[in-house]
Design brief:
Elements (H helix, E strand, L loop, with lengths): L2 E10 L3 E4 L11 H8 L3 E4 L5 H16 L6 E7 L10 H9 L5 E5 L5 H14 L5 E9 L9 H4 L4 E11 L3 E7 L7 E2 L9 H6 L14 E2 L1 H23 L8 E4 L4 H11 L10 H4 L6 H11 L8 E8 L3 E8 L1
Parallel strand pairs: 4-5, 4-6, 11-12
Antiparallel strand pairs: 1-7, 2-3, 6-7, 8-13, 9-10, 12-13
Helix pairs in contact: 2-3, 7-8
This protein binds oxa(dethia)-CoA.
Length: 329
Amino acid sequence: MQGIKISGIASYIPETVIENNDFTSFIETNDEWITTRTGIKTRHCAMNMPTWKMGSLAARKAIERSGISGDEIDLIICSTVTPDTLIPSTACLIQNELGLNGCQAFDINSACSGFVYAVDMAHKYISAGSARNVLVVSAESLSRVADYTDRSSCILFGDGSAAAVISPCEGKFSSVIGADGSGAGFLRASSVHPVTHPLFAVKGIEPETDENDHGQLYQDGKEVYKFAVATLPRIIGEVLEKAGLTADDIDSIVPHQANIRIIQTAASKLGLPMEKFFLNIEKYGNTSSASIPIALTEAVETGFIKRGDKIVLAGFGAGLTYGAICMEF
Ligand code: UT7
């Protein structure tokens, strides 16, 4: 079975830092609540920098670090829940910015599991001989969809991007990927809004309205929390079993950075020390699909993860989606 490696990885974090106390002028909250309930101290805001731009900045650096030339990249997969445009895809905008025109390029939306889904797809394209190298970009501007009247969700999210060049190698690769659409209503944001246009009048039909359409991001925090604390340890356990490894064989786990308490619960259910988990939620909050690759970039840059380490990446999010990967870095 073909393995894959991450030959280059990089992130882009927007400059503007939002402190917990920055929320206190417009919602009833405080630093103590946010810190103890979520583990988040700061998050960064793109201040409307386009998502494709953030993605391009990370992607350019990841390609440079990979040592692979642009013409050896046969596919760009962009994972985002906050595209600037419905069409064209963010992947095509990034492709054009980087001068990689000609290769395959498309977006996926698997919410916070998006990076794991995209790396799994990259593995499948490479294994099938359909791509030599794949550029995976995760870019998110959640500040553009967050509901700043909802204190239980707006404090969670941050903006940022990260990209990885995925290349073939000898090592083993295992994945557990899935979704449970029965939880689709627990975490949602609209991309197209109901409209009234002349054809309704021509046909004499009243337009349909969707009472679940909240426009900005809506989250049932408790339901998503329940899903997360059940799913994260389950998929980490399953991917290890698939890889024929035990938790002790693994050097590090990079989980989706949604809430420190979710990660602590997963660690305790798996009987794993927290030291195996890479954490940076305190600085960046939840950056949806960018969260795992931003954390992975930092883990590599700080020496927490080294070449040859056996790692697990595990995410969960809207959909409800989930995904875990076990590979050698
Ligand atoms: O990446 C996508 C995946 N998303 C997630 O993983 C999110 C999963 N859910 C969570 O992380 C948590 O459910 C939250 C952080 C969203 C909420 O934490 P919680 O411990 O479940 O709080 P809660 O909703 O049970 O609320 C407890 C109390 C409530 O007040 P009362 O009713 O007890 O008086 C809330 O109104 O905390 C209140 N509260 C706040 N207080 C101060 C909610 N948000 C805030 C806030 N500041 N920002």
